[in-house]
Amino acid sequence: MYLQKYLSTAPVLLTLWMTFTAGFIIEINRFFPDMLGLYF
After folding, report:
1. Is the four-CA dihedral 23, 25, 26, 31 of positive or negative sign?
2. What's the CA gap between 9 and 12, in Å, rounded?
3. pLDDT, mean of residues 9-17
4. DSSP-derived secondary structure for 4-31
5. pTM here?
6. Per-residue model confidence as pLDDT tens digits over 20-37
């Protein structure tokens, strides 16, 4: 029960979300190398 409470805290969720987002961007950049250049 303590583990579930720990996993629902903001820093843990933020870390998981940032990891997911970074991985998602890396995967897009792998398949579409020029896509990021359009936005930045």
Report:
1. positive
2. 6
3. 87
4. HHHHTSHHHHHHHHHHHHHHHHHHHHHH
5. 0.54
6. 999 998 888 888 877 666
Exposure on the CB side of residue 13, measured as CA atoms within 13 A: 6
Quick one: which H or E segment has residue 35? helix 35-39
Q: Alpha-carbon distance 23 to 39, whole Å?
A: 18
Q: Are 29 and 35 in contact (CB under 8 A)?
A: yes
Angle formed at CA 11 by CA 20 and CA 15, multiple of 5 degrees: 20
Find all residues with CB under 8 Å of 7, minimum gap 6, and list them: 13
